């Protein structure tokens, strides 16, 4: 009985040592292979962990922020059949902040961002070679749109709509290369027109009209 207890104690004490034997290893060609873990320099806190398959990242890699080790700050998912990787960023409490694809260390395709205090989507946007392209949509916590704006080459370009929380458009604007350019109309939350005019390169130009209770009150020339 005493011998069995000694054997059990030996197994318990040595199990962590055996478990570490397969970590941070190389294959016959000197490439990383299997589970790798690295700590922050001069610290026993984990910096990252993940699996390599003969030098290539495989599956999920977890990255940690110094001083916060309970949850990873980011998880990067590698797929051998894809050149892109899936990336998810997290708060210190483990709640997702944003997620999307990266290609050659640049954002690519659709990215999703989440509200801080809920699981609802805060914003969606699209990237091409790391630059915003297409619609960027922002949402209230109830899921309704608060803004929808077109982008081109990382700048606002095209139509832009701003919404009240009841779904009513309160601003309808146009942009060109990041500047207000084209017709602009402003409404109140009830849908009544307040102002309309024209922008040229971020400046008001021409005749602007001002309304009250949908009746024209004033005209100004710029």
TrEMBL record:
Gene3D superfamilies: Histone H3 K4-specific methyltransferase SET7/9 N-terminal domain. Pfam families: MORN_2. Keywords: Signal. Residues 1-19 form the signal peptide. It comes from the Bacteria. This is Toxin-antitoxin system YwqK family antitoxin.
């Amino acid at each position: 009985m005493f011998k069995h207890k000694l054997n059990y104690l030996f197994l318990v004490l040595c199990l962590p040592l055996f478990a570490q034997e397969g970590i941070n290893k190389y294959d016959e060609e000197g490439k990383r292979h299997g589970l790798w873990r690295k700590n922050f320099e001069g610290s026993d806190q984990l910096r990252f962990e993940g699996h390599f398959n003969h030098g290539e990242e495989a599956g999920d890699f977890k990255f940690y922020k110094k001083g916060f080790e309970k949850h990873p700050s980011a998880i990067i998912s590698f797929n051998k059949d894809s050149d892109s990787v899936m990336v998810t960023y997290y708060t210190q409490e483990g709640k997702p902040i944003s997620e999307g694809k990266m290609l050659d260390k640049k954002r690519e395709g659709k990215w999703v961002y989440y509200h801080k205090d809920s699981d609802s989507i805060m914003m969606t946007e699209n990237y091409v070679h790391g630059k915003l392209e297409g619609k960027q949509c922002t949402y209230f916590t109830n899921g309704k749109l608060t803004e929808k704006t077109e982008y081109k080459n990382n700048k606002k370009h095209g139509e832009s709509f701003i919404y009240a929380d009841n779904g009513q458009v309160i601003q309808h604007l146009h942009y060109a290369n990041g500047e207000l350019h084209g017709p602009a109309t402003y409404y109140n939350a009830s849908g009544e027109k307040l102002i309309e005019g024209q922008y040229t390169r971020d400046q008001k130009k021409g005749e602007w009209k001002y309304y009250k209770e949908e009746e024209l009150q004033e005209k100004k020339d710029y």
